[in-house]
Amino acid sequence: MTLGHKVSDLYLKCRHMDPIPLQTSVTEQTAQRLREAIILGEFPLGTKLSEQKLADQLQVSRSPVREALVLLQTEGLVRVFPKRGTFVFSPDDNLTRDLCEHRTLLETACVALAIERNHARLLKDLKASFTHMQNAVSAENTINYSRGDLAFHRAIIKHSGNSSMIKVYETTIGPIMALRTHLFTITGIQLDRSMEQHQQIIEACAARDVGRAQALCTSHIRHLSDHVFEAQLG
Amino acid sequence: MTLGHKVSDLYLKCRHMDPIPLQTSVTEQTAQRLREAIILGEFPLGTKLSEQKLADQLQVSRSPVREALVLLQTEGLVRVFPKRGTFVFSPDDNLTRDLCEHRTLLETACVALAIERNHARLLKDLKASFTHMQNAVSAENTINYSRGDLAFHRAIIKHSGNSSMIKVYETTIGPIMALRTHLFTITGIQLDRSMEQHQQIIEACAARDVGRAQALCTSHIRHLSDHVFEAQLG
DNA sequence: CGCTCAAAACTACCATGTTACATGGTGGTG
DNA sequence: CACCACCATGTAACATGGTAGTTTTGAGCG
């Protein structure tokens, strides 16, 4: 279990929306480290998380851990049962369906807004993420590929300009990313097909073809959920 | 047997706290009380919340208060500035716009899903809420009117059947409701017009007219946001 | 009279201690 | 042998105390 990230690295990674994060509390650092750990699959889904163990590993007291777990619960990554313990979320069919349905709603709405409001910046970030993913594919680095993929979709949300949706997207995509990580470790993923889909989304955005971009996002997410269900992950 | 009661009896009573833990922690109780207080306008928007004061008022220690504030922060009701304090959220133009845009997205999506998936139950709850609001209007009880209004829109979300959207809706509508409460205290609201809008939404849902229901929800929310902007609340 | 700086008061933040609850095991009893 | 009450242990929930940082205010100085 490798929780030993550098705080500064994590801080840079989670800087998508913080308006004024001049000072970052231990609680937030702890939350970020745990978030990463769950998303990257270092804790198997459904396992119990001991506050004391986490506190020992992260070299902090239990208070920040507790508050971080409260945060992660609102993001759907863990489930807290009073007096019994905290567990990493474990998906069921319904939850996966709901999450993907919700993500589709958000991304289709945001891609329309982003094309309308921030066309240039959207394209810039999409292309940058795409290049990042290409490099990851060449290097066969699945972790970096995931990061690029995440950045790609975050760009769509971010450039919608809607702070509320940006915030919610993070809490929606967390469990999905954790699921996908699990998927990676079990079945792998069809990288070239995924790359093609992203490429098409970029083209549709470049052409300001909102309808096509939305359709592509929808099918892109559907591919993922189908994949999850095939693997019977939930 | 020397003792009066058998342990097994107690076990039966609290056997399995299945879907929702019936044991509610002090933290959640605290969060609920603070949530209500903010939404009902007991704390003016933007005011500073002292952990110690709140702990004294609520007769608990500071730990539950802290964790409750973390919760409320994720719901957008308060804003925590490390080492500086916790403040009730104060809206600006952009936030209000974003929240209403987001709420519109959720409600239009959910009303379509609800009509498709839970038509009967949707209508039942909508009508019940409507009756509740009518009674509140007769009694000139604005608090009850707010509750009914909230229940009305929650019904739409709930019967979409999407757990992820249900969860997010709460965190989206919290600040909006707080804003509306503020609006009430300042300018009042056109109750009859609002009632008419709700009535029309019910009719559209009854007729399974998805497009019309969505359009009505959109304009309903737009009325609210216009009202907020007119009052220059944010 | 206004400005600067420093000290004090306040506050959040984190650590530690205490209590209460849940769980697994064991011995006793029908 | 089976079942159930009791007990021990581990863990979470809550309380409290100490520390570091921020804001404020007031006194001294320009």
From TrEMBL, chains A, B:
Any matching Pfam family: FCD
MF annotations from Gene Ontology: DNA binding; DNA-binding transcription factor activity
InterPro entries (alphabetical): GntR_C, TF_FadR/GntR_C, Tscrpt_reg_HTH_GntR, WH-like_DNA-bd_sf, WH_DNA-bd_sf
PROSITE patterns: HTH_GNTR
Keyword tags: DNA-binding, Transcription, Transcription regulation
SUPFAM superfamilies tied to this protein: GntR ligand-binding domain-like (SSF48008), Winged helix' DNA-binding domain (SSF46785)
HTH gntR-type domain mapped to chain residues: 24-91
PANTHER family, per database record: TRANSCRIPTIONAL REGULATOR, GNTR FAMILY, TRANSCRIPTIONAL REGULATORY PROTEIN
Full protein name: GntR family transcriptional regulator
Organism of this sequence: Pacificibacter maritimus
